[in-house]
Design a protein that fits this description.
Elements (H helix, E strand, L loop, with lengths): L5 H9 L11 H14 L10 H7 L6 H10 L12 H46 L1 H12 L34
Helix pairs in contact: 5-6
Amino acid sequence: MRPHSPILASLANVFRIPITRPQVTPSTSTILQTLSAKNSQQTSSFSTTPSLAKRKSAYKPDRRITLIRYFLYHPLTPRPLRFSRNRYLRHWTIHRAWQLYQANLRTQQETELYRQQQAMSAACEELRTSCGERGAKLFRVSMNKKGVFTDLFPIEYARLQTDSPGREGWNHGWKRM
């Protein structure tokens, strides 16, 4: 059996991976046989004698931790990205341009929604004031919310479904206007 490189031996030592088992010399084996013969007389399960320790094995590393260490610190695991100055500047520029583009899109959408809301308000006001009694009645009926939530809960209590609960469980101070 050829000896391992110092790098491999140090990695095995860090990750507590047994590489080879120490060979037992004849003198050690005879000593172990005599000790086991002496300790075999006591076989109670609650014993802490060396025979029980030998049966149970002194140290068993957790396999999950060993696997996590293996995959996190394996030599073939790629190192985290470290950009040079130019690449970092290029990355930052592209990222910032994307953020500005997204902000412009949001602004355009908000202004379009604002324009639509203003047009609806102007149409309702036109219906209320300049279309006579019939238009005013139509406006009042359209703005009346009575009977909308007859068998449902108020829409103000509705919340998007998420995987986690809300920050506050229930707004006890809420009152319908």
